[in-house]
Amino acid sequence: MTEKPPVVIVVDDDPSFRNFLSRLVQTIGLKAVLFTSAEEFLAAPQPDGPACLVLDVQMPGLSGLDLQRQLTERGRPLPIVFTTGHGDIPMTVEAMKAGAIGFLSKPFRNQEMLDAIKEGIARDRESRTKLDELVELQGRYQSLTAREREVFALVTRGSLNKQIALQLGTSERTVKAHRAQVVQKMHAESVADLVRMADKLGVST
Amino acid sequence: MMQHDRANEASVIGPLRLSFENSRDAILLLESILHQMSDAVIVADKEHHFLIFNRAAERMFGVGPTDTRAESWSRIYGLYLSDEGTRFPAQDLPLARAIRGEEVEDVEMFVRHDKKPDGVWVRVSGRPLRDAAGELSGGMVVCRDISDSKKEDIFRSGQSRVLEMIAQGATLSEVLASLVTLIEAQSHDMVCSVVELSEDGKYIRHGAAPNLPKIYVQAVNGAPIGPKNGSCGTAMYRGQQVIVTDMLTDPLWEDYRELAKLSGLRACWSTPIFSGSGQVLGSFAMYYRQPQTPTGSEARLTEVATHIAGIAIEHQRAANELRTREEQLRVTQAELAHVARVSTMGELAASIAHEVNQPLGAIVGNADICLRWLEDSQPDLVQLREALEDISSDGHRASQVVARIRSLVKKHVPNKLPTDFNDVAREVVELINHEAQRKQVTVRSDLATALPLVAADRVQLQQVLINLVMNGMEAMSEVENGTRELKLETTVSDRGVLAAVSDRGVGIKGTDAEQLFKPFHTTKTNGMGMGLAISRSIIESHGGRLWAEPNAEGGATFKFTLPAVDGEVQ
């Protein structure tokens, strides 16, 4: 499947600054989507390709930091580059702790902004890939029967076939058959592979 | 005398009547009594023929009894109404009224004729006369000369007028001129002057002398005082009255003899004017054009003149002192206001930096992009032009922000001009906009559509408004985000403009409201506590009032009024 083109989402209440950022990202061949407020952005459909947010910290209504919090709560934390007319240290710390890519005080060097945007898009692309993998993995996991899931869990905890059979009250041969099914359905190549998958799916413990 | 009852009359006249053998004796006695009286007594019959006209009446009215009708009396005897100019109407003359049967009490008239060119004031009472049958037979009047008390009344009311001028803030020279004129009116041939002693106690300063020769007044003004320096110079030097009966021979005038000759003045009596604490303030002088020795009657005039002149000069000096102090206070207040303004700007610094950096950020960034484009062999000129236009407009935006701030911070000489207060309010909203965002306060302004102009110093009013708005935002820092709302309102009031800044903050207790305006009262950890005190003094210097009220729904409202320029709403 082909990836959707990446976008830079600019949320700033200052029209001339929005124009400038749009112009800037175009110089590296990226497309900017412009919003005048955090509320406007939240109401719009979410981007379907990799994206990076460029956010003004101080805006009327929801501030940049508020928006960052809301996105985290929604479980879709986009990479954010903050801009500010006058940043203070506590504000920067809060933003960086919450996973901001950068915190740039106006005026900044264009290259700094472009680097931050590139990093943001790369990160988002990466997390998108991870997300896609997880979705795929979850699909495979769904295809397992209840018994196979029990076997999957016990295998990834390091139990031997004999122990599993004893615990499930069945024969070692039956366990082997289930185990083969699990490996096949999960597209695993080794037990180590299964353990990693369990870890990603959160079923190992 | 006029109002004794009949029983008494009988008891006095009765025994006398017994002693007269014939009426001629009685008439002679009556005549001699009448001529001895100082009051004028006139009796006339119904036909206006005079029956009695005593000597006092002849002296008072200049002419003896004439055979004329009442219509001519005002003209013949020089009778005027109290305006001293209108002839007394014949039908209202007390004697005419008495003849018609009226009882007349205490009518005042002014009498002036050849023998009394200055006129005399007369108080007249009249009674009708009846014959034995009780029929009207004529009338009589008794006239008393009340000139002395009348003059005294006029003099006293003149003094009151001068004192009133002092109280109402007339200039010293106006007051002294009125005083001198008043004193001069009390006597013939006398000209007066008041001079002041300079504050260093060395020189004569002209005060008032409306009727002295100009050349004389000019020569005296600035002359030194001393032991032999004319009348006034010596009187102020000695702190004692100096009587010079002839300026052409008196040794005190030796150095000023020519001046005296030139001015045509001969006698000059000068009396020092003292302050309440006994310090010499000036001198009051009486001049005559011939040698003159005091008769004693002038003493009272001198006393009145020096007393009132003393009050006037002291009042003037106190007022000067007050003005100097007020000026100093104004300067101090302006300095303090400047400090407060700068410190407010310090508090606003963060949001101002934001406001300037916003356009600067775009400028620097766009310029950088342009530079990159210019490295291309064939740059896109349309794009380049757009970016440069943005740079230019952002540059203007930044400079406007800077100009706004500069006008607030620079040293400022108050200057009141007709101003639309809404303009001031809008500028302030722009200035504090980012600060409000930073503090997450919603600012709502509700400005009246047509405000009357106010005579206002823009910068000072901005300062007041910024102060109130910053306070309001500060007061809401503890309340929950989302309910922080600040309302700025202007309305037309009955005398001008009413402005209100309401917050939903911690509020004030009703009794504490006035405390807020005391200097150095502060609830902030880094506040000077001068903001509201300065704001109030600014509003008061604009003729308005500033006060605080608690809001019913929590928070506080600060309100102030500003009078319209012409005192009325347009």
Provide an overview of this structure.
The complex is a heterodimer of chains A (205) and B (570). By secondary structure, chain A is of the alpha/beta class. Chain A has 2 domains: 7-132, Rossmann fold; 143-201, Winged helix-like DNA-binding domain superfamily/Winged helix DNA-binding domain (Arc Repressor Mutant, subunit A). Helix content of chain A is 56%, strand content 12%. In chain A, strand 1 (7-11), helix 1 and strand 2 form a beta-alpha-beta unit. The longest helix of chain A has 33 residues, at 110-142. Chain A starts with 6 loop residues before the first strand and ends with a helix. With 570 residues, chain B is α+β, with helices and mostly antiparallel strands. Chain B has 3 domains: 37-145, Beta-Lactamase; 152-318, Beta-Lactamase (2-Layer Sandwich), CATH 3.30.450; 415-570, Histidine kinase-like ATPase, C-terminal domain (Heat Shock Protein 90, 2-Layer Sandwich). Helix content of chain B is 46%, strand content 21%. Chain B is built from 15 helices and 18 strands. Chain B has helices spanning 6-19, 23-36, 55-61, 70-77, 94-99, 147-167, 172-184, 214-220, 230-238, 257-263, 298-375, 381-409, 421-438, 458-475, 531-541; strands spanning 40-45, 50-53, 79-80, 104-113, 116-130, 136-145, 191-197, 204-208, 242-244, 267-274, 280-288, 417-419, 442-447, 454-456, 485-492, 496-502, 546-550, 556-563. In chain B, the strands form 4 sheets. In chain B, strands 2-1-6-5-4-3 form a 6-stranded antiparallel beta sheet. A 5-stranded antiparallel beta sheet of chain B has the order 8-7-11-10-9. Chain B is elongated, with a radius of gyration of 42 Å. The interface between A and B is medium-sized, with 25 and 29 residues.
